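Structure request: Ferredoxin reductase, Catellatospora bangladeshensis.
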Amino acid sequence: MRVVVDLTKCQGYAQCAFLAPDAFRMVGDEALMFDPAPPADQRLKVLRAAAACPVQAIQVDLADLPTPPPEQTVVAAKGDRLRREGRVVIVGASLAGLKAAEQLRAEGFTGSITMIGDEAEGPYDRPPLSKQVQTGWVHSADTALPRHCDIDADWRLGVAATALDLDRKRVRLADGQEVEFDRLLVATGVRARPWPVPEEAALDGVFTIRTRGDAAGLRERLMAGPKRVLVIGSGFTGSEMASVCCELGIPVTVAEAGTAPLVGALGGVIGRISAGVMREHGVDLRTHTKVNSLQGEDGKLRRAVLSDGTTIEVDVAVVALGGIRNVEWLESAGLAVGVWGLACDAGCRAFTAAGLVTDDVFVAGDVARQPQPMFGYQFLAMEHWGNAVTQAEVAAHNMISSESERWPHLEMPAFWSLQFGHNIKSVGVPPIADQIAITQGTVESRQFVAAYGYKGRVVGAVSWNQGKWLDFYQQLIEQAAPFPLPYGMTNPPADGSPMPAEFPERVFPAHDATVVVTGHDPSERRATLVRSSRRR
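Returned structure:
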């Protein structure tokens, strides 16, 4: 039995914790933790909890339940040849890839599906790896994603895609084989950014956290009782790992090059609140501080030299410096691809380097860079769980639909984080904001909502242990409501005046040309991407 909870939907009503307390539990005021692989004797309770969830955020493995009658599952038996006999290849066998395959089958696609993944394991849920797994509530091997149907796929696991031939419609694999397709979905996601010095990164005790293997190795080391853990970076993963160390009673130092934790995602105002919470829990937080080097003895990590002039003794370091989008295999394919991901339109169709949309290549998940109509059509890459699900479903639908039947991906960006007993949730795109205002609750109580504004309109909101209010703010964002909010709110703060959001200077994708154009006549002109390694 497999369970996953869409925590962007969860609002902390705790019905599941009442009905199945061995599988679900509340942390703090409204944060939910869950067992992704509850024992078989809990099945009935878990199913009742899923049915009782007021926002239907709980997904349970349904692959072993009776198959519905054909008329309920085959919705396109009368469709065209692509739906009946097409070949769909999905590169990326994780959350987005699985959801796309399930959507294809749900819409009556009866052709072949090939799932290609560089990991030897099938799709699993990544958020628990830095939470439930590290605290010991669940094992990393128990994080497989629930299956809603048998997708009847040809699984090519443990072998990476190495190249794409658009003209021949083939994906080349690391083992030398090629897979032909009629439609291709790129869902390769991101990988953890490693420590930049290979010799130091190879020291025993230096970890990133992205895969099951990462999580299992780190959990084992934490259980061995390290004297001190160093967390490098204080984004969401770094902050969550600091929280885990505190929960386990392990001394932890956080080195953050910026002004505060979470400042890149939520800005300086919320960052200072997060910094205060960390220090209240005993974290040795060093802001404006970089790690100059990691030092070891006999191949094992022993100390870290910091830019503030200090050297600290550590035996575990968690490198939490963000991710690298897995696009290298596409660099010779002629697509609009770079360090920011693979660009696509609102229907998830990939762009070529010349800015043309393809009809055969689609993109979904963390690797996709897509224009957001609600935010001035800015190209944004959203590394969020809920975005991967909805984007994959839209991409799958559009792959096998006619032009007039295609959907736009208009999902509101949303994410969550559980740290130090606090549930932090966000909707919209706070990092594009220039102002912020506390609109409900109080910072002192650690129960509040903050709205973000950009050029006089609401573009985002973040809640701290007040997630039930975010649906309202989502509606404000969708309606382009004015900022500051022109009306009174329930439980207003003493001072709700707007203030600068204090985000770091934004890094734009290109300050220089990214393509070279060749040819003279319209029929001869071509655009070719310029690689950074070729620039001088």
